[in-house]
Design brief:
This protein has 248 residues and is of the alpha/beta class. It is built from ten helices and eleven strands. The protein has a six-stranded mixed beta sheet, sandwiched between helices. A three-stranded antiparallel beta sheet has the order 9-11-10, with helices on one face. The chain is elongated and about 65 Å long.
């Protein structure tokens, strides 16, 4: 399964917020046998978001969009996704009812938020989703995510994004698998080895050096677990290998 990740937010591009969402998602998808092929960070711009979603939904099995689902004027992600898929925004009544209840509980538990900040929550706005979409509502936050065609839309707050992803995680299962070999051999001395691996086995291979005296890592990936295992065994017979560093 080939996946593209679109991170939305002016604050990400300004360096005010670290984009941990994309890193976390990529690792989760890889653990499930999927492959992330593209990651991009773009501004809260309705036209730009719609353009990426429209192009990438045709190129990849799934597109994940995170960020821009709140109730402020710069939160335009849902509108942009609807534009990309040429769908109207409609109020999901079940989502609206759930948001009404969440708002009631929040007002009871945190009345100061409403009194001091003149806060008003509009359930109808939060429940507007592209027509035909499948909503993702969690207890972690206010704004619901959704799935429409092969586009998955999650909130930008990490805890909310992770809760939403876990609801659909099984849909990202794939056949990819990977194994790593650690070696003290310098990366520059591995060029011939890496080229020969690609000739001998139907796998992808990458070399990742470490700082200081820490061993480097050779990662072998593929869709055939036996082929990956054979490639790893061959590598171990060609170069010196060591146990993984403690932090790994």
């Amino acid at each position: 399964m080939h996946v593209a990740i679109v991170s939305v937010g002016d604050e990400l591009l300004a360096g005010e917020t670290t984009n941990t969402n994309a890193t976390w998602l990529a690792a989760e998808i890889a653990d499930r046998g999927g492959t992330v092929r593209r990651i991009v960070t773009i501004p809260d711009d309705r036209v730009v978001i719609a353009d990426y979603v429209d192009r990438w939904r045709e190129a990849y099995d799934a597109v994940i969009v995170t960020g821009g689902l709140g109730g402020t004027p710069d939160d335009v992600t849902i509108d942009a996704v609807a534009d990309a898929l040429d769908r109207e925004l409609v109020v999901h009544e079940a989502v609206r009812e759930r948001l009404v209840e969440k708002g009631r509980i929040l007002r009871e538990n945190r009345p100061e938020l409403f009194e001091e900040h003149d806060l008003e929550l509009d359930p109808a706005t939060g429940a507007r989703l592209p027509e035909g979409s499948r909503s993702i509502v969690t207890d972690a936050g206010w704004a619901p995510g959704c799935v429409v065609e092969n586009v998955y839309v999650f909130a930008g707050f990490p805890e909310e994004m992770r809760a939403a992803f876990r609801r659909v995680a099984d849909e990202f299962d794939g056949a990819a698998t990977s194994r790593s070999v650690f070696t003290p051999v310098p990366e520059g001395a591995l060029n011939g080895l890496l080229a020969e691996i690609r000739d001998r086995f139907d796998v992808a291979v990458g070399s990742y050096p470490r700082k200081g005296s820490a061993p480097g890592r050779v990662k072998v990936s593929g869709t055939d677990a036996d082929e990956v295992a054979d490639a790893v065994a061959w590598i171990r017979g060609q170069i010196e290998t060591v146990d993984p560093p403690a932090e790994d």
